[in-house]
Structures are given as C-alpha cells and as structure tokens.
Amino acid sequence: MNIQFRDFAFGLETSRYADHRYILQLNDGIHGEEPWLYNSTTGSLSLLIDQIAGFEGSLPGEYLPAPNSEDFYFIMLSERFSRQLFKLDSAAATEDPEAPPIPSLIAFPSPTTGTIHLNQDLQELRLYDLNGRLIYETSTYVKRTPLHLGFVPNGIYVVVGINETGEFVRTRVVVCGRGNL
Fold first, then answer.
1. Sheet holding 61-65: strands in order across?
2. No. of H helices and E strands in the chain?
C-alpha cells in the first residue's frame, strides 16, 4: 500500500485493521515511531497511542489480527522499554479523533543555502532527515538566531522543538546549498 501524507514521511510498516482502516507505524518527528490509525474512507489519520513520550517512540510492529476478526494485537515498547504485546482498543479505533493542532513553527528562508531562522524561542531543538535520523540537536534556541545548516547535504529536513509553553512544534526546511535544487 502506498499512501502519501503531508508532514508524515516515515511510514515503515502497515497492516489492515478493518475494511477501510489501517494501522501504520509512523514517525511524525515529534512522537517518534508510534502506531497511527488511518481511515481510507475519510482520509483521516490519528495517533493511536503515544506510548513513550518524546522523540524516540515505542517502535510498534508485528501486527497480528486475531482469528476472531474482532481483536487486533501488536508489539511495541512499554513505558519500561521492554517489548510487550498490546491489544487495540476497538472503541478508540472506531472514533477517528482529530489530532491536536501543533503550534506553527516557521523556518525562513526555506529553501536555504545553509542558514535559517526560526520564529519561536525553543527549550529543545532537533533536526531530522526524512529517514527519521537525528542530524542535530541543541538544548535551547533563541528566536531569530541564525541556525547554520551548511554541514548537511542538500535535502528536506524536519525541525522539531519544544516551545516556551512546553508544546511540541515542527516545520520542514529545504536545504539546497551551493545553488543546487
């Protein structure tokens, strides 16, 4: 199955849960790799559970539909970082909750040849490539301070941070150094 999602570039494993619902293993750059529920009829995508808070995620996988066709199981890391078997909550899987809005983080200029500025002060800042690999991190960022990205290859990157109110924020930035697009 090939599904294009805006802001979600890290689909690794998928399994059909019901006729029009799929469980996806995605990394949105904020929660790490967690299980997401996709409804192909409505096009809605929602985080099923943020099992391990932070950027690392719970690494779900090994999706197992039960023979009774009602239950659905998968394996992921527990809060104590051990692999555990989880059962999908059918009530939660039928609701299609809306994902909470993420406050806007703006990187400018983008595309850039190597230096960007952000529109918010951040308590923590991380830069990921589109494979979900951590490229750069710092514990603080002051609004409009130059952030030099000349060390990264040309490409698209996800900037993720925690703002002053403790909310996760993210944006994408295109790096096309030396005038190459």
1. 61-65, 72-77, 83-87
2. 1, 14
Strand order across the 21-27 sheet? 13-18, 21-27, 33-39, 45-47
At 179 the three-state DSSP class reads helix
Q: How far apart are CA 81 and CA 123, in angstroms?
A: 25
pLDDT for residue 14 = 59
What does the pLDDT read at residue 33? 78
pLDDT tens, position by position, 2-43: 444 444 444 445 566 666 677 777 777 677 777 777 777 777
CB 177 within 8 A of CB 169: no
pLDDT tens for 104-162 read 888 989 888 889 999 999 999 999 988 888 999 999 999 989 999 988 998 889 999 99
Tell me which amino acid residue 165 is.
Answer: T
Give 14's strand partners: 24
Q: How far apart are CA 123 and CA 140, in angstroms?
A: 5
CA distance 60 to 13: 9
Residue corresponding to tokens 């190459």: 180
